[in-house]
Amino acid sequence: MSEFKLIPNEENEAATARLLETGAKVGADAYQFRVKNQTPHCKFGEQGICCRICSMGPCRITPKAPRGICGCDAHGIVGRNFLRFVAGGAATHSDHGRAICETLYHASPDGAYHVKDPDKLIRIAKEWGVETEGKDIYDLAHEIAYLALGEYGKVFGVQNWLSRAEAHTQELWKKADIEPRAIDREVSCSLHMTHMGNSSLPEALIRQSLRTGLADGWGGSMAGTEFSDVMFGTPKPIDTTANLGVMNAENVNIVVHGHDPSLSELVCDYAEDPEMIALAKEQGAKGITVSGVCCTSNEVAMRRGIPMAGNFLQQENVVLTGACEAIVVDVQCIFPALGPLSKCFHTKFITTSPICRMPDSDYIEFSVGTAAEKAKQIVKTAVLNFKNRKPELVHIPQLKSKATVGYSLEAIKKQLDTVTNSQVDETGTLKPLVDCITSGVIRGAVAMVGCNNPKVRPDSAHIGLMKKLIANDILIVASGCSAQAAARVGLMDKAAKDLCGDGLKRVCELADIPPVLHMGSCVDISRMMVLVSDLAKDAGCHVSQLPVVGCAPEWMSEKAVSIGNYVVATGIDTFLGVVPQVSGSDQVTNLLTGGIRDWVEAAYTFEPDIDKLGDEMIERIEEKRTALGI
Ligand code: XCC
Ligand code: SF4
């Protein structure tokens, strides 16, 4: 019998309830209350049949009014709304990627940003046909960063990194005419296509949705991942802890939240500065604890072992502990609620990016040139705020799990090598994994990704599905808030092997890995794309034939749909537990759940019943195995 126990969801929920009691004492609002005020949601919005892209409208489709004033029907309206949703997500990820490229462009040996993984930079340069011999590594970094920035607006041609895909995938993209051109062009073209009086043909709108998604996954997000690795180091397995109990009542608590590691990396650096620690002690604290929320947390966890306080729907909870001196944010997934909420406590809500300005925050603008000085100012602000803490409001739930994180593709290959003792080149091989899948020791793999969403009991779908899948010998790779959901209950503890079927358990023991592999933040789903492409190459089949599926059971953001589109377009069936706002058009729904299979050999499944969703994924994996004859 297994001794290992996960933290039950009930305990997490009880912790949240207790935090809301503190909130009630100080008159704090919380998303749980706002959800009540917002339900039931607008039916037109839910089905995607409200159009407000011109001022003859807004127009809403009903049985009595089947067309908008311009004559657009439900299919056109739903398709356009969907494409705009994807464009929003692709723009967001890709702009994050662009910021990373800009930071790399300014990296210097005596500045705040360095080249920590020169080998990776050289690998990319060779991939892009850039001469590396005899070049200073920083000159090379600037040259590559400049070229990478050029990918956003390249005049002709398609994204450089498409060549990483398996050959058949590349052919499919070409045939379907969905190879992404310049990243900005695809976003811009999507807005153009959806302007009043342009496309209303679902097929054209969905094709562009896939193309825009691909510009994200194989363009902007990949740049975010690759160049973050170059500057901050390619992740390797590292131990950390997760859940709200990582905050320390005796220390100054700084919580980093958002997505761009350029900020959080430096905040972490200064929090370790002896001068800052001495200052914290002067204020009566024992030290400084930095922990993270959302993808920024994933970034610093996998590179530095910084503990993970929680995911998206935990962001208010960290303030409600009463022990958060500062919540420092950069971009994306930040509740505007943090402003008013922080005012109920001593917490400083520090915004740092011109992209993300919010009322009731202290704005300390962060830029490449001033990064070091601003990071120091931020840490100091937090430390000096310790004395303003109200002890009677402090309550940190004592929930904490162990986690091993940091499974970049490079790290996975290396880990597999240790199992087989094979001598491989610098980029490694996935052959041992192929063998495990072929023999059936592992039945397949699921990429668990995406947010949590109050429409689903928070994290219950992520955790429930992961438990079910690993028990069925299906390996999980996870990223984003899904990864954090896993970490905070213990699924990234190596001991969680006890919850696996016999085959997967044995692989976990041999390879010394947890059954749920943390592959990083949401831009790092680009790592998963290269993983499946390499897996297909090593297995000698197409991506769409692999017993591998993708799943976002609790997603909420535009970015998540952009991700879904590039995952599907890469040939991986994708399962969503929250239905996108397309149900108002059977034509669009049928395309997404079936029709696009003709183009990319994969499609979506929408299934809000999480048990069924899990069964369907297992079924699909087994179907793929049967088709391969394994
Ligand atoms: Fe945001 Fe990336 Fe979603 Fe989490 S998973 S809520 S998008 S932080 Ni990306
Ligand atoms: Fe209405 Fe057409 Fe304008 Fe949309 S584009 S708001 S459907 S008139």
Automatic annotation (TrEMBL):
Keywords: 4Fe-4S, Iron, Iron-sulfur, Metal-binding, Nickel, Oxidoreductase. InterPro entries: CO_DH_a-bundle, CODH, HCP/CODH, Prismane-like_a/b-sand, Prismane-like_sf. It catalyses: CO + 2 oxidized [2Fe-2S]-[ferredoxin] + H2O = 2 reduced [2Fe-2S]-[ferredoxin] + CO2 + 2 H(+). The keyword Iron-sulfur applies. It is an enzyme of class 1 (oxidoreductase). One of its GO terms (molecular function) is nickel cation binding. Its EC number is 1.2.7.4. [4Fe-4S] cluster 1 binds at residues 42, 50. [Ni-4Fe-4S] cluster binds at residues 259, 295, 333, 451, 481, 522. GO terms for biological process: generation of precursor metabolites and energy; response to hydrogen peroxide. Its cofactor is [4Fe-4S] cluster. The keyword Coiled coil does not apply. It comes from the Bacteria. [4Fe-4S] cluster 2 binds at residues 51, 54, 59, 70. PANTHER family: CARBON MONOXIDE DEHYDROGENASE (PTHR30109:SF4), HYDROXYLAMINE REDUCTASE (PTHR30109). This is Carbon monoxide dehydrogenase. It comes from Bilifractor porci. The gene is cooS.
